[in-house]
Amino acid sequence: MDPGPVDDTVTLRHDMRDATGGVLLSVLGIASPEGGGMSDLEAVPNPVIHSCQILDPARDVRRIEVVSEVLRRGRQLAYSRSRIVDADAPARLIALTEGQGVSIGTPPAGLERMDAPPIDVVDSPDLPPLWQVFGGRRRDDGHWALPELAVELASPDAALHIGPQLVVLESAALELAATACGTGSLQGVASHVMFVARGKAGPFRVEGEPLAGRDGAVAARVTLHDEGADDRLITAATYRFREVA
After folding, report:
1. Which CATH number characterizes residue 174's domain?
2. Which of 103, 182, 222, 223 is the most buried (most CB within 10 A)?
3. 148 pLDDT exceeds 80?
4. CA dist 80 to 76, 77, 222, 241, Å?
5. Alpha-carbon distance 204 to 223, whole Å?
6. 179-193 burial string, b = 16+ CB within 10 Å, else e?
7. Would you give the DSSP letter of residue 15?
8. DSSP letters of 177-211?
9. What's the number of domains the chain is made of?
10. In this structure, are residues 60 and 94 in contact, taking their beta carbons and an 8 Å threshold?
């Protein structure tokens, strides 16, 4: 949507990393949403499935680059995948992502590309965690949650954007996994997210369960529910982590 030069790189800040210094799965998902390559000028895209596998936690990587590949574009469904590499050393592979998107409509007449001035957030120890930026919190009832839908958290079709969803789901999953294995020194290894329905009201509540494996592996399954829409299930995800010595 931006008429300026294409830039598929992301500068990693400390708030984009977990407690071990590894890059967060949610950051890779936001940078590489895998909607099948559909643009807002062609359709009203909606994500269906997103998966990510981390091969390198990128603790010493300053910038990443998303190298995208459209696999298939149909009338409604589209499929894509990406290689995420060290932008300053492209031979170094960080992660693989893939997913499916669907067109849920046509864009309004007259929609054109628009100038989007760059947003340069300077890294600082004072930056809040991403879940806080998106309005997430751990409620008194023990559930992670997002607030009622607001313009700042909505996609162009007035539904909860995938960014807040990915961040709060990973935050909840990481906490569940840490409780299950007794350590917060965990690195995300893989995620698989299914966007079941659009979030239209809120608040949005996370439910989840940890699943312990062997040799330092632990997983968590989480779901996101729209409490303002009859507690409708809108997203289901599985996250896998490993202990870091």
Report:
1. 3.10.129.10
2. 222
3. yes
4. 14, 10, 24, 25
5. 10
6. ebbeeeebbbbbbbb
7. G
8. HHHHHT-S-EEEEEEEEEE-S---S--EEEEEEEE
9. 1
10. no
Mean pLDDT (the chain) is: 91
Q: Higher-confidence residue: 146 or 119?
A: 146
Residue type, 219: A
- d(CA 194, CA 191) in angstroms, rounded, equals 10
Look at residue 57 and tell me if it is in a domain.
yes
Mean pLDDT throughout 89-106?
Answer: 92
Find tokens 């100038």 and name the residue.
Answer: 115
Q: Are strands 77-86 and 63-73 parallel, antiparallel or unpaired?
A: antiparallel
Q: List Cα–Cα distances, 220 to 32, 58, 107, in angstroms.
A: 22, 22, 37
Give dist(CA 95, CA 190) in Å, integer: 9
**pTM for the whole thing?**
0.92
Domain that holds residue 18: 9-105+128-243
Find, among 14, 24, 3, 30, the residue nearest to 165 by Cα. Answer: 30
